[in-house]
Amino acid sequence: MTIRDTEYCSMISGRICIGLSFIALAMQVSSAMAEVFTYPALRTTQASDPEQSLLTNTQPTAIVYGSADIGAFVPVIEAFQQENPFIGVEYHQLQTLEMYDITQSQRANGEANADLIISSSMDLQMKLANDGYATAYQSSETDALPHWARWRNEAFAVTQEPAVIAYNREFFRENELEPPRTREDFISLLVNHDELFSEKVTTYDIERSGVGFLFLARDERFFPGIWDFVRTLGQAKVKLYSNTSPMLEKIASGQVVLGYNLLGSYAETFNQRNQNLGVILPDDFIVVYSRIAIIPRGARNPNLGGRFLDFMLSIKGQSVLQNEGNFNPVRSDVPPSTFSSLIFDRYGERVRSFPVGPGLLVYLDQAKRQRFLRRWQDALLNRR
Q1: CA nearest neighbour of 314 among 114, 141, 127, 77
Q2: How many angstroms separate the CA atoms of 350 and 353, rounded?
Q3: pLDDT tens for residues 220-229?
Q4: Could you tell me the pTM of the whole model?
């Protein structure tokens, strides 16, 4: 049986649940996670200020819903406010499924929505846009995006982030082992050292993590041995988590020693603070996903949403995202970091990205999703 980070398993009598709705279950788990962070305007707006027309009939505060950890996102907020000192920012850190549900319910109830929504669940964000929940927006900054990164001027990729392997350097050094650099290496390592790695491996619980689901679904397309891989994880009594941060912390501390498909932006940032955490870009192929931003219909002030979006997509905004949070830029004219260059220059042909568009909706087909989750459950429990 796999080990999970909450009492989720006990809710279903020790077994993995397939009868409950994916979204309803995830909402129960995530609803207590919302946090609000307020950043007042650096200057008080006066009637004579040129920004006044932008803020007519509204508070000078941009309301942003986002799934990024505030620690990683606050540099963007601060840089935005340096260029827009009259505008405050209220950042609601939400789980992606909660964000999706709130957006729908606010529209249904005729309530004002956020000015901008930035989600790491590409499929859910694309569904909102496809179902008419996004306002069209076009500017010189959105026009600077590559074609794959925008859809109908309604959905915009703002980052590129790889799935990586993370490991505990001290553990591998003491045991004179090389960390795995491909998925086949990963399987071989766990099979050949089963006792050493028992309960020492971690990955996303794809039933509660939208990005974890997307990463594994992409793996299935490009790696024929993915279900043997998952069976090997099950045999190793893999520990499953819905968020990246606890996995990185446990790997660095040695509570677990090896992680698969972890979010590279967070892993690289953590690595810069804790050298005991190693980060590997898989040599066989790299799955890269993007956070998608939309300006919702019914936004309190869509002009403010557009202003914040334009900053994130500007050369300066993309540089801040990259340099402060290791969120690799979408624009090709942004000077790349070492991490970004490694991904797209060294591994270019082996990068497997998600284009922004209706193709992402295939991951929300409930029949297909349930089949995929059932196969995941069977593989973890080593049922054929």
Answers
A1: 141
A2: 10
A3: 999 999 999 9
A4: 0.82
